[in-house]
């Protein structure tokens, strides 16, 4: 009987130890915050190229620096989705265009004014934890982008410019570094692959003159800032 009682106690202790270990494992697997928010300074650097009808040449799109807000939701400790929100303003011109038909040179830069872009971008990320203290957290991501063109100001050179809103895709690389249990520093680089059809109304230069263009904007988004998890 004594041996039976000791055996029962041993089995009970083993069961308790196993249950405790399983609970601890589950607690560790859920040891993460589901939400993060970041405020970053963002350099928007177009890597532009264009095919321009009628007058030929290429395009030039200015770089700019803007504030950007993003939200990240973690499905697990490693897998997350990030949505970025920001808007940028760019000056646009053609380069090396032949405008001799309207009395200009054969290689000219034509000022097309400015345009604002609203490019909400959703990426799905995988986060790594290479260090034991988990303070340094690099990640990679890929996703989609939809860019809205608005507030088009053609200035005085041409009568008007139309940009088609466009769907593109994005790749991402970055890292978070924890300052304390709640706040962290972030650096992030994204490459957007973005193409838009453009129509320039130059009827003020020659009757009925419309200039089509197929434009790759393909900007780099280079950001740094701070975030908070909750």
UniProtKB/TrEMBL annotation:
InterPro entries: OMP/PagP_B-barrel, OMPW. The keyword Signal applies. Residues 1-21 form the signal peptide. It comes from the Bacteria. Keywords: Signal. The keyword Signal applies. PANTHER family: OUTER MEMBRANE PROTEIN W, PTHR36920. This is OmpW family protein. It comes from Flavobacterium suzhouense. The lineage of its organism: Bacteria, Pseudomonadati, Bacteroidota, Flavobacteriia, Flavobacteriales.
């Amino acid at each position: 009987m004594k041996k039976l009682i000791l055996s029962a106690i041993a089995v009970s202790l083993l069961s308790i130890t196993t249950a405790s270990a399983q609970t601890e494992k589950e607690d560790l697997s859920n040891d993460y915050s589901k939400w993060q928010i970041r405020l970053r300074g963002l350099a928007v650097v177009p890597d532009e190229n264009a095919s321009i009808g009628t007058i030929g040449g290429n395009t030039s799109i200015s770089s700019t620096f803007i504030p950007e807000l993003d939200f990240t939701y973690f499905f697990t400790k490693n897998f997350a989705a990030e949505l970025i929100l920001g808007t940028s303003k760019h000056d646009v011109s053609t380069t090396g265009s032949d405008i001799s038909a309207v009395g200009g040179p054969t290689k000219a830069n034509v000022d097309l004014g400015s345009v604002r872009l609203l490019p909400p971008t959703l990426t799905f990320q995988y986060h790594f934890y290479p260090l034991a203290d988990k303070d340094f957290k690099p990640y990679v991501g890929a996703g989609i982008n939809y860019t809205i063109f608005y507030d088009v100001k053609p200035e005085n050179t041409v009568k008007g410019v139309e940009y088609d809103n466009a769907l593109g895709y994005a790749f991402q690389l970055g890292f978070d570094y924890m300052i304390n249990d709640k706040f962290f520093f972030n650096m992030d680089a994204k490459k957007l692959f973005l193409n838009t059809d453009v129509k320039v109304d130059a009827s003020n230069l020659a009757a009925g003159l419309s200039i089509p263009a197929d434009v790759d904007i393909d900007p780099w988004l280079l950001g740094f800032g701070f975030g908070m998890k909750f």
